[in-house]
Design goal:
17 strands, globular, 472 residues, single chain, alpha/beta
C-alpha cells in the first residue's frame, strides 16, 4: 500500500532507483538512477532544505515569525519555500537571472517572494545575487540566510538520508557513485557516507561542466544550470563552498554542454524520465564510467531534478536550436553551416583592449565588425555567447582616431559613463548554427550589419549582411 503521511515534509526522501536499461544497453555493468526529481518539491534540494531549516530552529537562528532568505538557481529555494511555508515562515528567494523562468513561477506558486539578480558579474559587485540577499537579511528583522553553499546541514542531510538509502537499495553492491557538484552538499554527504560504510571501496565521481573550475576548467560560463563552479573574470577573491569537500571526489568527468543537454533529452525519450540538464551531465558521466568497468561493478547516478522546470530550455527544440545545440541532419542545407565555410575564424576583442589593439585585430576581418567579450586570459573552450558585452567596428574606431575623439592607447570600452562609451556598439544578434538564413536575416533587422553564429552556446563566426543576402 502507498504510504500515508501527516505532512508533505514527511514525504521528502525515500526516492526509488530506476535501471537505465536503454541508455545502458550493451554496457558491462548496470546503471541505476536515483530519482531525486520524485521528491515533493521536484528536486534533491528538498532534503537539504528540510535539514537546514530544522538545524536553524534547533540553533535558535530561525524563530517563529521569522523570514527565510536564500540565493538560489531555483531548486533549493523551492525546497525552502515548501518547508518554510509549512512551518509558518515568510520566504524570500533571490534567484539568478540565468535560471529557467519556470523556477520563479514555481517559487511564487508555493508562496515565495522572488527577487531576480545577476550572477554573471564579479562577486564583489553590489548587484550580485549573493550581495543582494545579504542586504535583505541585514534589513529584515528576524531574517535568516540559509546559505546552502556554506551550511553544513546541507551535506549532513545526505549523510543521514541519501547515502544510507543507496546503500540499502543496492544491498551494499554499489561500487561507483556519480553526481554533479553544485554547492557540493550532495556529492560530499552521499559520497562521503558511501565511502565510509564501504570501507573506502566506493568510487565517487563528480560530473562537471567542461569549463567548470571544480574539474579543472577556466570557470567560463556553460549552459547547464545548478552545477559547476563559475568564475567571473573580474572577481577578486574566488571562494569555494564550505559544503564541498574535494577529498571525497575520487575523479571528475568533464562533460560538454551538448553532451549534457542531448543526454537529458534522451532520458525522456528512451527511459521515460523527464529530468533536468544537470541530470544529463550526471548520466553522460555515468555512461563514460560504466564503459571502463567490469561485471562485478554497479553504478548509481543521482538525477537531481525534474525536466518540468526546464521546458523552455533543454526540452524546447526552439531554445536548443537558438543556442546552437540542435541542427538538422548533416546532409541538410537548411541551417547556417554551409555559410561558415568561407567565414574565417572568429575574431573577438577583449573588453580591456585598447583602440589600437582592436583596430589591429579587425584589420583582416571581413565587414570590419567583431564581438567584444569579457577579458579572460585563455579560452580553451571558445567564446561563450553569455560573455559577449558589445561589438566594435573598424570604421567607427578609425573615424574616432581621425577626428581626435580617441587615441590608440585609449580603452575600447571606455570608463563607465565616460566619453569613449560610444565606441562600444551593441552586442551583435546571435543565432544558432541550426537556424535558417532567413531567421538570421530577420535577426539583423535594420540596426545590425552582422550576426554572431553559435555552436553549442559558443560563438564561432560572424556572418555579414551581404553574405547572408547572397553577396560576397
Amino acid at each position: 500500500m502507498a504510504a500515508v503521511h501527516e505532512s508533505v515534509l514527511d514525504a521528502i526522501g525515500g526516492t526509488p532507483l530506476f535501471r537505465l536499461a536503454r541508455l545502458g544497453a550493451g554496457l558491462p555493468v548496470p546503471i541505476y538512477a536515483k530519482a531525486e526529481f520524485l521528491n515533493i518539491g521536484g528536486s534533491v534540494k528538498d532534503r537539504a532544505a528540510l535539514s537546514m531549516v530544522l538545524a536553524a530552529e534547533r540553533d535558535g537562528l530561525l524563530r517563529p515569525g521569522g523570514t527565510i532568505v536564500e540565493a538560489t538557481s531555483g531548486n533549493t529555494g523551492i525546497g525552502l519555500t515548501i518547508v518554510g511555508r509549512q512551518r509558518g515562515y515568510r520566504v524570500i528567494a533571490g534567484v539568478s537571472d540565468k535560471s529557467a523562468p519556470e523556477k520563479s513561477d514555481i517559487l511564487r506558486a508555493y508562496g515565495a517572494e522572488v527577487v531576480l539578480a545577476p550572477t554573471a558579474v564579479p562577486a564583489e559587485d553590489p548587484a550580485h545575487l549573493f550581495n543582494v540577499v545579504q542586504r535583505l537579511v541585514e534589513e529584515i528583522p528576524g531574517a535568516w540566510l540559509a546559505n546552502q553553499y556554506d551550511n553544513l546541514a546541507n551535506p549532513d542531510a545526505h549523510v543521514r538520508t541519501t547515502g544510507p538509502e543507496i546503500w540499502e537499495q543496492t544491498g551494499g553492491r554499489v561500487t561507483h557513485f556519480v553526481a554533479g557538484v553544485g554547492t557540493g552538499g550532495t556529492v560530499t554527504g552521499t559520497g562521503g557516507y558511501l565511502q565510509q560504510v564501504s570501507g573506502g571501496s566506493v568510487t565517487v565521481v563528480g560530473a562537471d561542466p567542461e569549463s567548470s573550475m571544480y574539474g579543472g576548467g577556466d570557470g567560463s560560463p556553460w549552459f547547464v544550470e545548478s552545477i559547476g563552479h563559475f568564475l567571473h573574470p573580474g572577481t577578486v577573491e574566488d571562494r569555494w563552498p564550505q559544503a564541498y569537500r574535494s577529498e571525497v571526489v575520487d575523479a571528475f568527468e568533464r562533460i560538454p554542454d551538448r553532451e549534457s543537454l542531448l543526454t537529458a533529452r534522451r532520458l525522456a525519450r528512451e527511459e521515460g524520465i523527464l529530468a533536468g540538464p544537470s541530470s544529463g551531465t550526471a548520466v553522460a558521466a555515468a555512461l563514460r564510467v560504466a564503459r571502463r568497468l567490469g561485471p562485478d561493478d554497479l553504478v548509481v547516478v543521482l538525477l537531481p531534478d525534474s525536466g518540468r522546470s526546464y521546458l523552455s530550455k533543454v526540452h524546447s527544440d526552439d531554445w536548443m536550436r537558438q543556442w546552437g545545440f540542435l541542427e538538422e541532419e548533416p546532409e541538410s542545407t537548411g541551417g547556417l553551416r554551409p555559410l561558415l565555410a568561407g567565414a574565417g575564424p572568429l575574431v573577438a576583442v577583449d573588453a580591456g583592449a585598447t583602440v589600437g589593439e582592436a583596430l589591429e585585430a579587425l584589420r583582416a576581418v571581413p565587414g570590419g565588425v567583431a564581438p567584444v567579450v569579457l577579458a579572460r586570459a585563455a579560452r580553451p573552450y571558445g567564446v561563450s555567447a553569455t560573455e559577449v558585452v558589445g561589438s566594435v567596428s573598424r570604421a567607427v574606431l578609425a573615424a574616432a582616431i581621425a577626428d581626435g575623439g580617441a587615441k590608440p592607447d585609449d580603452p575600447v570600452g571606455g570608463s563607465p559613463g565616460g566619453p569613449l562609451g560610444a565606441l562600444l556598439g551593441p552586442a551583435l544578434p546571435a543565432v544558432g548554427v541550426g537556424q535558417s538564413p532567413a531567421e538570421a536575416r530577420a535577426a539583423l533587422g535594420g540596426a545590425h550589419e552582422a550576426v554572431l553564429v553559435l555552436v553549442d552556446g559558443r560563438a564561432v563566426a560572424v556572418l555579414s549582411r551581404p553574405r547572408l543576402e547572397g553577396g560576397a
